Structures are given as C-alpha cells and as structure tokens.
Amino acid sequence: MSLAFTIPAITLGAEAAPKKLILIAGKPSHPPGMHEFNAGCLLFQKCLSGVKGLEVEVHPNHWVSDDAVLDKADAVVIYADGGKGHPALQGNHKELIQKLVDRGGGLMMMHYGVECSAADNSGDDFRQWIGGAYETGFSCNPIWDADFKSFPEHPVTRGIKPFRIADEWYFSIRFQKDMKGVQPFLIATPSDQTRDGPYVHPKGPYPHIQARKGEPETMMWGVERGDGGRGVGFTGGHFHKNWGDENFRRIVLNAMLWICKMEVPENGVQSTLTEEDLKANLDPKGKR
After folding, report:
1. Contacts of 21 (CB under 8 A, 6+ apart)
2. pTM for this entry
3. Cis (ω within 30 of 0) for the bond into 198?
C-alpha cells in the first residue's frame, strides 16, 4: 500500500516589482536657463534616486527611445514644449498615451506641456488625461510672482510650506466641466497688473482675464480618473533656477510619486540640490 502525502506549499515573501516612472524631456527650447527640459528631468531623477521601489528613466529629445517603454510604465511625465509640437500629439503618440491611460497609468504634464493644440480636439483629451488644458486665447502666460499661502490636505502637498516665486505661471486653464474630479494644489491671486498684461505670447490683454481681477487661479492640479489612474498638471517650470527652491521642487516630486500610486512621505520627498547640480546637463544654447 502506498501513502500519498500532500506537503503544503510555502510561499516565500517576494518584494513587489518596482514602479517605473518615465520622464520625457523635450527638445532644446528658449534661451539659456529657460525650458531646460533635459537638465530638469535629470534633476528629478537624481532627487528620486533614494525612493525605494521606484525606477526612474529619463528619455530626452521629445519622446521615449522605444514605444515599448510605455507598455511597462506605471506613469509618464512630459516636460516639454506643447501646442501643435507637443510630444503626445505627434504621429501615433496620442493613441499610445491613451493606451497608458486606459490601463490606469499615471500622467503628468509640466509647463508648456499642459498646452493642447488649437488645431484639433486635444483639449478634450488633455482634460480626460489630466483634468485641464491650456488653450491659446482662453488661457494666458504672464511672468509673475505667485504667492502660495495655503494648501489643501493631500499627499501631493505634504511637507509644503508657504512660498512665493516668479515664474511663467499659466492660468485661466480650461478644466473639466464644473472642475469635476479636479483637485487644485497650487492657488494664488494674480495682481491686477498681471491680468492687464502684457503676457508672454500673445501679449494680450484679454478682457475675460481682466474681468476676473481679485480672483484666485489654479497653477497646479490633480485628478483621479474613472479608469483608476491619476493625472497632474503643473504650469510652472519656465526658469530652471527655480528647481533650487525646496517647496517648488518638492511639490513636483510628491506629484510624481502620487501618479505612480506610491505613498508620499509624511513630510514630502526630501532632496538637496547644489549650485553645481543646477548647472549640470544644461542644453548648449550659447552664452548664459
């Protein structure tokens, strides 16, 4: 007679696969110290290097090195020029981003990257993906001192203290109807002079912008989409030197963890940058 014994399987604890964050840096643009997309993305990668369970890849020159990279991405950040030249609107890229979104992937667009193209319906796509879009003629892009005095309780705002900083802060963003599902993170009130222009381009001013004097505007926001994914729009990031400001940098780093569905530390992402770090990897644009 033979006896059969069933030995219970022992499952050893295995670490979860790391989250993969893809940073797409746009092509060189604007004068030195402005729109330093590649240098900025490399700074983000450096600042996030100590986050356990996260892998960060930087892909320069306006898109990923291979479309297959997106199939394994948990989240994508696009820091690049926008409008009709937006990386997500070239060739079949919109379909590839939609595929990422449909499976619940995170997406963050930064500075000029929040601007949709006026030539198609990409504003609706952006609103689906990240909750809002910069639209030429409706939105504006002055350079001004935004004074951020208070913040909502949210993982993205952890560790952020009141700060004031000059940047090309876009505002009058066209959001989803009634701001449905949209959570503002950075809110400030432009001065009357800021609303009166001139804006960077077109110079303006626009009557509908002037009509809202004294009202607050949203410069950074997030959305939790119905597909389970998360989206973020950040309108700052024009001046590279601003990444040296701890709060300016931290809220963006926090957002990058959040779109990956990772836990943001109680006091936010801690990072330190030196003057040498800020001078590294700048695009060769001539005299600085």
Report:
1. 48, 54, 55, 56, 57, 73, 74, 75, 76, 77, 256, 260
2. 0.93
3. yes
Determine the Cα–Cα distance for residues 73 and 260; give it in Å rounded to an integer: 9
* Amino acid sitting at position 16: A
Tokens, residue 42: 């490399």
CA-only gyration radius of the chain, Å:
20
pLDDT, one tens digit per residue, over 42-74 is 999 999 999 999 999 999 999 999 999 999 999
Domains, the chain: 19-279 (3.40.50.880)
Nearest to 167 by CA among 78, 32, 34: 34
Q: What is the pLDDT of residues 160-210, one digit of tens each?
A: 999 999 999 999 999 999 999 999 999 999 999 999 999 999 999 999 999
Pull the structure tokens for residue 247. Answer: 């709060």
Q: Which amino acid is at 139?
A: S
